[in-house]
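User: Predict the structure for this protein chain, please.
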Amino acid sequence: EVHVVESGGGSVQPGGSLRLSCAASGFTLNYYVIGWFRQAPGKEREGVSAFSRSGDSTYYADPVKGRFTISRDNAKNIVYLQMNNLKPEDTAVYYCAAGRGGLGPYEYDFWGQGTQVTVSS
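Assistant: Here is the predicted structure, written as structure tokens:
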């Protein structure tokens, strides 16, 4: 059975950093692509970062370019999202999902429960 579980959320001050982890089970990272998404209160879920279907490219939403980095450890079956220079507008519930790749939520079939990230002074 396919599962993805997020961890690593928390509360930080503006300018701080967090690293989110997405642990995958029931499949390998060569079979499904992992993407990161977020949803702030009152807003739609949006793509943050993801690998391409081929796995040799990465995508970043414009608001996070240069601050967030997606990476993966195939041996551990974990995908990370390193978030630096966090801003209050990054506050959201962050989800990882397994699917076909890219930043569109409709490309993903298996979702985690989400982890809260709060950026506030």
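The two ends are 41 Å apart (CA to CA).
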